[in-house]
Amino acid sequence: MKKINLLATLLMGAAVLTSCETDRDDNPRLNVPNTFTQLTPAIGENVVNLKNSESIEFKAEKAPDYGFPTETSYWIQFTEAADFSDPAKVASTDTKGKSVTYEAPANEIDLGLMKLRGYEEADQVNENEVITLKVRLVASLSHATDSSSYVYSQPQTIKVTPYFLKEKLPKFWYLIGGIVADGSWSNDPAKIGTSLTPMYIKAGQSYNRFTGDGLIEYVGYFTEGEFKILAPEGLSNWNYGMGGGDLKDGEGYKYRDGGDDTGNLTCSKAGYYRITIDTKEHVMKTEEYAPEDPVKKYTSMKVGDTDMKPVTTVAGGENHDWTATVTLSNGNMKFTANTGTAWGTSAFPCGIATTDGGQIPVTAGTYKIFFNDITGAYMFIEQK
């Protein structure tokens, strides 16, 4: 048994008074068992069609005995390999349950299979293939921040048929208007990077792997004037997006959901602003952006060895977004400004680069690339 003492170290001033108390045998101690028992799945030898299923039920005989009552989370790991010894051959579900009866989302199992097999195109998947998976339940303390309380059940076996499923990138929205990009108000998708400025992922956030929803943001300089923010569905047709407010308002903006025009967004006070949108709830918030150090203004930017173009070219604007369309081989690269400042990190195809980060590992392909030199946010959008 692994044992972790849950009692915090007491203040030195109280140590003498409490040292005898902290050594008592009845103090709570966390005992992490070596394993727990998973029951045979109710589906038995039946083959589960993942495409037509919502979930698969897995059940433990009882909760792991941690030595005292505690809230426990459950999920599954699965593999086609003989065992779970190679992490590269193991996938996990993201959704966690609070009961010994765990409903594993079928789409998360299928997406894990796509990644384990390296499938990138629909024609790689045989939807009639019966795949045998070893599956084990994983339990942990619900509020654990590391794997020290993880307990793994013995594996059981299930059979499934797959379907093609690809993880979606975060859902990006676009700024457009008289004070954005070239100021032309052209909402043609071909004008992304010319008339439309993309928003980016937000540091510390996660995104739904099946819808792409989550918190996105844009940080930049705005002159006085009007603009809108379009959802992806609003490109070409204007029917979906944000409007109806001033950047200084902070909140209360209106989402157009195919109905009447909500009116433009306004900037009545020129300056730097942070715009945040919850793409699932369609809620937008704004605030003035005032970093500790003055915002730097760069005159040129490269991605690898390729020169990038400024996105903001409208009169009175201040550019902090850069774009380039590049065909790449597998490799590593950074963003580099005219000052020699370089940004990088380990994420692809989108992430938050920092000046002390490493090389960005890129996958071969042709991409339209965007980079914001204030936040370090970037995205590589594959062109097909």
Tell me what the structure shows.
By secondary structure, the protein is mainly beta. It folds into two domains: 35-161, Immunoglobulin-like; 174-382, no CATH class. It is 6% helix and 38% strand. It contains two helices and 33 strands. β32 (365-372) and β33 (377-382) form a beta hairpin. The longest helix is centred in the N-terminal third of the chain and has 12 residues, at 106-117. It starts with a strand and ends with a strand. InterPro entries: SusE. This is SusE outer membrane protein. It comes from Segatella baroniae F0067.
- Total helix count? 2
Give the amount of beta strand, in percent: 35-45%
Rg over CA atoms, rounded to whole Å, is 26 Å
Overall pLDDT: 92
- The low-confidence runs, each spanning 5 or more residues with pLDDT under 50, are 1-24
> How many domains?
2
Shape: elongated
Largest sheet: 7 strands, mixed
Return the structural class.
mainly beta
Helix content: under 10%
Distance between the termini: 53 Å
Number of strands: 33
Quick description:
With 384 residues, the protein is mostly beta strands.
Structural descriptors:
single chain, 384 residues, mainly beta, Immunoglobulin-like, 2 domains, 7-stranded mixed β-sheet, 2 helices, 38% strand, elongated
